[in-house]
Amino acid sequence: MAAAIDVERAGYRLSFEDIDAAAAHAFLTRAYWCEGIPLATVERAIRHSLCVALHAQGRGQVGFARVVTDRTTFAYLCDVYVLEDHRGRGLADWMVQSLLAHPDLQGLRRFMLFTRDAHPLYARHGFQPLATPDRGMEVVRPGIYLTAPPPATDA
Description:
The protein has 5 helices and 6 strands. A 6-stranded mixed sheet has the order 1-2-3-4-5-6, with helices on both faces. The chain is of the alpha+beta class and 155 residues long.
């Protein structure tokens, strides 16, 4: 993959390379979808995913989004957030749009996500409810990070 360049806009910068795992962890550990997630798990997830970070001038990383993908047929968008003080400026839209435009995510057969409350954000980018939800299955382990030891790390 060709290295994605950083893009700047109105005091913010998006980067596919300058990812602060500790900053992402600080938010994700309190997020409803992964409460209590260990830092080692976030670091491992970042290593194995296509990520984008949102940086505010002089404030560090204030947003993040991650795509789990084989970069050929399938992608799963997750862990999207913008810190509360920076919301309402179209920054999550900018991150999602930038991920969807990434060269490694073109021509995919399926791009999925799950959300409790951000349906309008993702609908603006073409996401729709599952066409055939009866075909989908899942294993869900809510609260797993609050009860289980972190998985072994890989180097």
